[in-house]
């Protein structure tokens, strides 16, 4: 029987980064993951945007999140021997009304790290004409598929990964034993599957399906992310991820013609360039009703934790809150902020 201090269920973005956090802290950790399950992390665009365009505010906690995010992904790139995080400025075509608000924000020193310029000239060809164009700094993307694949290889090489389903209603869970592994604590990082989890069904999860296209557009600039009603994200070799959609009824990971049409129609209003659709993916985001992550210990089961609800901002949120989750697991007296604490859902 192998002894492990922490068992993590789920090797999406949350479970993967948490596993590294614990591993770096000298904790003997094991991950259980079913690769056949839907994994929103793998099909996600992985985009990082420090601003919320709808209200033209800074993204929640962005000043704290970005430095931690960049440091951690840089360290993981060195460990895994491959680059998978890329800084890339973002272009936002602006209306006349939006231009006024952006110019106000640009004059505000709190926005200085994130707004490069608001200008009438567009730095790239083939964008539909707009009143002005805002350039965002601090944006970029994580190649989530490559990162998770490299992490999986690392975990396999270090005998830290079991590829299987983890049943929560069996005797093994009560005895803290899975296959030939005996564990002290367990953390569930299962994304949208948490909604049907018998131990955490009190969490107000609102999963949202999203669809993304990959296009080939050899004439389009790869120097910027473009974002207006749809994002166009360069991923190399004249390929771009384009998305996304929101669907709350159909929570399968099956791409739909409706989703594809929605993306193509919005893309037509953004760029005028020839392109070919090469791929079409779908995944389900683990979004919480209050749009905040969920970290904490089960109210009745001392050894059982949850780390979830990272949603559309997961790439930026995960490194910071994986560190918080590590502290929570290792120190019984540690408290995470009320905004992300699992206790906000307790009603018993």
Summarize, please:
27% of the residues lie in helices and 27% in strands.
Report on the structure:
By secondary structure, this protein is an alpha+beta fold. The chain has 2 domains: 159 residues, FAD/NAD(P)-binding domain (3-Layer(bba) Sandwich), CATH 3.50.50.60; 134 residues, D-Amino Acid Oxidase, Chain A, domain 2 (2-Layer Sandwich). 27% of the residues lie in helices and 27% in strands. An 8-stranded mixed beta sheet has the order 8-9-7-15-16-17-14-18, sandwiched between helices. Strands 1, 2, 11, 12, 13, 19 and 20 form a 7-stranded mixed beta sheet that branches. The chain has a 3-stranded antiparallel beta sheet with strand order 3-10-6, covered by helices on one side. The chain is globular. GO terms for molecular function: oxidoreductase activity. This is FAD-binding oxidoreductase. Keywords: Oxidoreductase.
């Amino acid at each position: 029987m192998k002894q492990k201090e922490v068992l993590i269920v789920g090797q999406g973005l949350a479970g993967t980064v948490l596993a590294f956090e614990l591993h770096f802290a000298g904790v003997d950790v094991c991950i259980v993951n079913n690769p056949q399950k839907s994994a929103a992390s793998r099909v996600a665009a992985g985009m990082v945007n420090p601003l919320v365009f709808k209200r033209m505010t800074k993204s929640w906690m962005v000043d704290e999140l970005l430095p931690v995010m960049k440091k951690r992904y840089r360290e993981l790139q060195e460990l895994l021997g491959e680059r998978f995080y890329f800084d890339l400025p973002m272009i936002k075509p602006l209306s006349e009304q939006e231009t006024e608000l952006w110019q106000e924000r640009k004059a505000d020193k709190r926005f200085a790290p994130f707004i490069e310029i608001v200008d009438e000239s567009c730095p790239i060809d083939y964008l539909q004409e707009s009143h002005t164009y805002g350039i965002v700094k601090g944006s970029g993307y994580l190649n989530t598929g490559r990162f998770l694949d490299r992490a999986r290889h690392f975990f396999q090489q270090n005998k830290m990964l079991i590829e299987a389903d983890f049943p929560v209603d069996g005797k093994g869970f009560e005895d803290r034993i899975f296959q030939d592994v005996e564990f002290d604590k367990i953390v569930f990082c299962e994304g949208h599957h948490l909604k049907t989890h018998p131990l955490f069904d009190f969490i107000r999860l609102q999963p949202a399906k999203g669809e993304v296209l990959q296009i080939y557009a050899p004439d389009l600039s790869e120097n910027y992310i473009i974002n207006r009603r749809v994002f166009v994200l360069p991923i190399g070799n004249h390929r771009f991820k384009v998305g996304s959609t929101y669907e709350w009824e159909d929570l399968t990971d099956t791409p739909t013609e409706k989703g594809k049409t929605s993306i193509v129609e919005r893309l037509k209003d953004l760029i005028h360039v020839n392109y070919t659709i090469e791929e079409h993916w779908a995944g389900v985001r683990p979004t919480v009703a209050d749009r905040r992550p969920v970290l904490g210990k089960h109210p009745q089961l001392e050894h059982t934790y949850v780390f979830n609800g990272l949603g559309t901002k997961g790439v930026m949120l995960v490194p910071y809150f994986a560190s918080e989750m590590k502290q929570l697991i290792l120190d019984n007296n540690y408290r995470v902020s009320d905004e992300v604490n699992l206790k906000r859902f307790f009603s018993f």
